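[SOLVED] Need 3D model of a two-part complex

Original post:
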Amino acid sequence: MNSPPLTVVLIVPTGVGASIGGFAGDALPVARAIAQVSDTLITHPNVLNGAQLYWPIPNALYVEGYALDKFAAGCWGLQPVHQNRIGLIVDCAIEPELQLRHLQAVDAARATLGLNVSDCILTDRPLEVELRISESGASWGTIGNPDSLLRAAEKLIRQAKVEAIAVVARFPDDEGSIALENYRRGKGVDPLAGAEAVISHLIVRTFKIPCAHAPALSALPLDPQLSPRSAAEEIGYTFLPCVLAGLSKAPQFVGPESALGSQLSITADRVDAVVIPATACGGSAILSLSGRSSVQIIAVGDNKTQMQVPPEKLGIKALQVNSYLEAIGVLVALRAGITPTSLGADISSLRCLSESTKQI
Amino acid sequence: MTTHFISAEVDLHDTAEELHSAIETELQKHGEPLRWAVTDVDVDRQKAVVEGYVLVESSPVAA
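Solution:
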């Protein structure tokens, strides 16, 4: 018997202090597990990027957040690829030795992983990244010279014909700050994440091309109390390998008409389920997908965040579960054509739409 | 081009899709929405608190 493929979107919003996935790619085990019970998993760099660590998931699509929002809104489709030709943008504010570390990481990815990273370019001005924490507790930031970033991207696309762009920007060393101390202990909010999202969103929005970002930072002193959730970012000199691995097979973005013409392309109407932290249901993608009656929203309670937006406050119909283990059980049930609530002890009465039940 | 952080309150709507549109409309008053999320909901006042970034185009990109 042929069943339609099960397509699942996994979202762990960036920079909101998610207790699972708010650190160094620490939702990757969740993604690996969900991919096992899905035909296609669509997720984003914050979930899959673990600095030096990553895990190739054959049926996962690595989709940058701005593109994920456009996909969810039905504006863009996702076109899988065999391999992307990647270009690298390096912030000219990065010190020469740290630049060389990143270029050697690229060489390692080319020689050891066989990735096609063809060209690199230095920005013509320092990107000047600044970090902030908003009133809600989310991290955000700005870049002082977005035009310089876009000029570099345009040159890579026009001259080198790259199909995906990795960006390395110099981020402020925040050594000694409470935010960094908390982050290294597996608590609080990733202070870099919000600004990283702005950088990749700018390029994806402008050029409609896959993009991901790795911050360049000075090495931190050894910390014996380092949390396992943050440890992936302290085992090397750069955060770039996971970005290159992800971009290498990231799907291209196509218009909805092009997507309809290709059997391989995936559009929002193919989505069966979305898995999201229960307190962070206020993002653009989840609001868009919740409007599709065929999409099962699964809200995971024990992935706490700084947000205060459970699905019911926005009128989003969701199945609330305690853990990702439980969410995976729901996905298995959906795949098998079993109503998830029928696996519990209490089954609600049949709803009757007639005005009178005398005849029933 | 510059990026700006915006915090705003938007009326809650009957559906999430309507709320999505209302948020985009509100942010467009300040620039082109780049990234946003509802960060809190005041059920009593029927307001959603939204934080986001917008892009503001300035003079053409200088070479």
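Edit: The interface with chain A takes residues 1-5, 7, 12, 14-17, 19-20, 23, 34-41, 43, 48-51, 53, 55, 61-63 of chain B (CB under 8 Å).
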